[in-house]
Amino acid sequence: MNFTFRKAKVTDIDNLEILIEKSAKSINATYYSEIEINAALGNAWAVDKQLITDETYWIVENSNGEVVGCGGWSKRKLLFGKSDTINALDNELIPGIDSARIRAFFVHPDFIRMGIGKELLKKCEAEATSLGFNSLELVATLSGEKLYACNGFTSKKYYEVDLGNGITNKVVSMYKKLVS
User: Fold this and answer.
1) Are residues 102 and 132 in contact, defined by beta-carbon separation less than 8 angstroms?
2) Which of 23, 149, 154, 168 could form a cystine bridge with 160, CB 3.0-4.6 A?
3) pLDDT band at residue 43 under the 50/70/90 scheme
4) Verdict on whether the full-model pTM lies above 0.90
5) Residue 85 clears pLDDT 60, i.e. is over it
């Protein structure tokens, strides 16, 4: 199947939100309860407009123009979720010292295991490397851990993310050294 990879635009947000919800409710159902998934949606699992503004967020479309994947990387300190502050200069990472962040990867459940996540990672790694970053870090859902591990990331620590109202999600922090 042919896929088109392009940078996400603000006009894509509605379609991205639909994809994220569909992906999260299907792919994460084995790892998280319905209550945990619903608490994460729009909170930890959301479109971060800062990634779109920074032009570091990718969207993937199938041959029919349907949005089937998304994911990106960030030069900002936020590890996951969405930023309420756009273009804040005080939250930028320092290339060569800090690790760039891999952020907000979601794939439509009908298109999993087709290489979308792997290709998105390649694009993100190449861009981060070109700007001087020599490592990447991320916070993975339990369902996403395998994708990242198969692509050179090492699991560092499992912990719980507070989603409010006493609801948490178990996640894993992961790291990868980049080869320039």
Assistant:
1) no
2) 168
3) confident
4) yes
5) no
